[in-house]
Amino acid sequence: MELSDIAINVAFTIIFCWSMFWTFLVWGFGIHNFTRKHNKVLGAVGMALWWGLMLGHVAAIYAIWGTSYSVGLVTGCLVVAHVFYGLTFARDVSTA
């Protein structure tokens, strides 16, 4: 692995960790508010997808370091997952 590849992987690892922190806090508030306003089944589906998104970040970090997947592909998948989750389950991210 060349030095430029290592630098790119380190940079995207930091970005993925920040994104995971965003998922934990902001999308966590969103799923909390979603489960209060909707029935238990939809809340359970949203919570399962929230956990899946959290684990997806760990898998993305592994994918850029341990496999031959490109950083662009992994980042694109995470962006699509965040947009989908934000538009469906985490619309209300208020803390009140």
TrEMBL record:
UniProt keyword list: Membrane, Transmembrane, Transmembrane helix
Membrane spanning stretches: 6-29, 41-65, 71-90
Keyword Transmembrane helix: yes
UniProt protein name: Uncharacterized protein
